[in-house]
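To assess whether ligand presence alters the predicted conformation, the chain was also submitted together with heme C. Input:
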Amino acid sequence: MRKVFVLAAILVISMAVVYFSSCNNETKEPEPTANKDSLEQVIKRGEYLTVHVAMCLGCHSKRDFSKYSGPVMPGSEGAGGEEFGEKMGVPGVVYARNITPDAETGIGTWTDDEILRSVTHGISKNGDTLFPIMPYMNYNRMAKEDLLSIIAYIRTLKPIKSKVAPRQLMAPIAAFYAPQFLQPTIEGNVRPPESDRVKYGEYMTTFAVCGDCHIPMTPKGPDMSRPFAGGFTFDVGTFKVGTANITPDSATGIGAWTEERFLNKFTLYREEKNYDFNPGKENSYMPISAYAGMKDDDLKAIFAYLHSIKPISNKVEKYPK
Ligand code: HEC
Ligand code: HEC
């Protein structure tokens, strides 16, 4: 009697298993491959944005200034430690942090929401606010799906154990944190259609943080009244270089540039043989070898946007003494 019961029970259970798994098969069979494909696509888009557009790795890795435009040193991707000091207009010193998936010294234990909050609102996991050299003001305007693809990609970086020194600022961080310029939520952000060249170009220019370097620097910080007018001078130690005026002013900016000239400025560096020479004192601080990986259409859209903004006359010396 007992045996029969056990048998019946097993039968019922196995029938149930068959039933549910066949249900699963029916409704979910295509999913594993669909999920895999779309996750791969998300990571690919994330890699493109992280490496070639948003420059996350340009700041959060070591750069090799013995080569033209300081490409990222292989093996240091995401480990942080780059120093941003007074020569970069920081009152004190701030270090790019470790954003590899290392659990102890990186962001391995952070949730997507925690990473998203630091990238779009400058609030770290522990609630501390971040110095705005981390361009969360820009990323605050980007579409959530693009940002999530970046997060998906940085989770695939090799975990690197590297403890980054704490920043030292000459004033409390509250003096530099300006939440009034941040949208409280990014949920409504959209990526404009690529067919809208100027709008889409503005989106990519913001994502690529071009404006943060190409702005005149004053003792009080960047001169927001003259966006893209250039003149911010970087002192890398071995050389000094001023950022170009990239407004459409014909005499001092890029007003006389054709789209082709602009495109060539970037695409030249798609091949390492074109930048792997001894640049000496006339190097660039612009991570152009990373931007070179941007799609032609994306670069052309950026050009279309830059040609649509207000021309500002500002003569910049490229290699000041
Ligand atoms: C211009 C350089 C720069 C760029 C570009 C940049 N970051 Fe940062 N990031 C920093 C610096 C510097 C800090 C540390 C700020 C501080 O200590 O106040 C930081 C902090 C962070 C933090 C907080 C980590 C922690 O431990 O609190 C995260 C996460 C982060 N960045 C991710 C990113 C991602 C993702 C991107 C690209 C979408 C990116 N960063 C682009 C410079 C940069
Ligand atoms: C980290 C700082 C930095 C960022 C970010 C940056 N640039 Fe530059 N850029 C420079 C510096 C420095 C120069 C001058 C040296 C040189 O020509 O490479 C320069 C030069 C240029 C020039 C060349 C002008 C000339 O006369 O040859 C163009 C065009 C340009 N940048 C466009 C851009 C665009 C577009 C972006 C965003 C996709 C961008 N830059 C992002 C620092 C930066």
